[in-house]
Amino acid sequence: MIQRLQHVRDDERGISIIFVSLGFMAFLSATTLAIDVGMLMTARTQAQNAADAGALAGATALAFNSFTDQSASGRAVPSAINAAKANLVIGQAPSVTFADVTFPKDPVTGEFDAVRVLVHRTQARGNPVATLIAQMFGVQTVDINATATAGAVPANAEICVLPLTIPDKWIEKQSPADSFDMYDDDNKGNLLSNPDVYVPPGQTGATGYNPDTDKGLQLVLKTNNGTKVAPSMYNPWDLPGSVGGNDYRNNIASCNPNLVKMGDNMVPENGNMVGPTHQGTDDLIAQDPNAYWDTFCDCVKGSAFPVSPRIRVVPLYDPVVYAQGRQSGKSGPQLQVVNYVGFFIESNGSGEVIGRMTPILGKISGNGPPSIGGFARVLMLVQ
Fold first, then answer.
1. Which of 276, 261, 246 is nearest to 313 (CA)?
2. Fewer Cβ atoms within 10 Å of its own Cβ: the N or the C terminal residue of the chain?
């Protein structure tokens, strides 16, 4: 009996089953990590892509449609939701509701120029991500969430700038209302008791052109005699590296890649630019002849391009700097960039350029912060 018990004690048959069972559990656990964790990481990445796409779509709608319309029936909210849902998460659209799209205040610009989007594949929304191997361990589903914030922040630099500039908008206090008046005696004497008022963008009570209220505004740009600031009267100027009529004409007909920044001083072109303005504008219109301005949507239709080349950047100059320069006796007009407007060129007359104001994208120069209150915008993910 004792020998039999000793035999049973020393018998190692069947021990391999124990090791195989333990190994199988380890292998199953590793498989869970390899399959389910990998799938969930993919789901998380796809959810983030959906949130990013939604936030950027919402910011684009802010810039090109309306900064003030944050309602469910506006353009920004539906654009954000549709773009987010178009990006599937493990083969299924994420849940995004109107409440998941918000408009946080930008701490840098002080404007509501950002869009935050939340996307969900969760149990609470009825669309969690199902696991595969982990179900054997009682984990049936996993919740996936993602958030992104994109901004349509003010730009402080531009390229493809037209070589003509007009004054930014001011509040008229003088009569007749045909020029910007700060000083008596044709802007060379004493400060007027009730001068015209100009407040630059980014300051309280800014008077300049506004991307919401002035979208679609038609302007007739007329050549300026260089002696006064008048609405829509343009001053020709030389872009960096350019001089003379041929360069001026080419800079209208094609994109000059030089960066023009807020605060830059534009060098006036003193020659008669009526002819080159007409020729360059004709050349530009010929590049996209079927494009036209649709007053129903306040946008360009019929273009052969994603963005019509006839949409160009017009730099705005500070009328106060201009007036102060004339009052101090400086030679030539003082043209300092204070803002930009997008301008779709509709038609061309004798020395006149007719077009519509439209939102535009710009750039941020590494040498300075965004220009708060600027017309041009930069679309970027900020979170």
1. 261
2. N
**Token pair belonging to 12:** 């190692």
> For residue 203, what are the contacts with CB-CB under 8 A and spacing of at least 6?
373
- Rounded Cα distance between 155 and 377, Å, is 5
CB 71 within 8 A of CB 77: yes
Q: Where do we find the tokens 């990013």?
A: 52
φ and ψ at residue 29, rounded to 5 degrees? -65, -45
Query: Two tokens at 83?
Result: 């773009």
**pLDDT tens digits, residue range 271-309?**
788 889 999 999 999 999 999 999 998 899 999 999 999
Rounded Cα distance between 301 and 17, Å, is: 75
Distance CA 180, CA 192 (A): 12
Half-sphere exposure of 79 (CA within 13 A, CB side): 20
Instruction: Tell me the residue type at 91.
Output: G
**Nearest residue to 377 (alpha-carbon basis) of 56, 181, 85, 152:** 152
Cβ pair 159, 256 in contact under 8 A: yes
Q: Enter the tokens of residue 90.
A: 């493990």
Q: Looking up tokens 């306040």, which residue turns up?
A: 298
Residue 374 pLDDT grade (very low, low, confident, very high; cuts 50, 70, 90):
confident
Query: Are 353 and 373 within 8 A, CB to CB?
Result: no
Tell me how far apart the alpha carbons of residues 248 and 239 are, in angstroms, rounded to a whole number.
8
CB 250 within 8 A of CB 317: no
Q: Which of 325, 340, 355 is nearest to 259 (CA)?
A: 340
**Residues, the chain, total?**
383
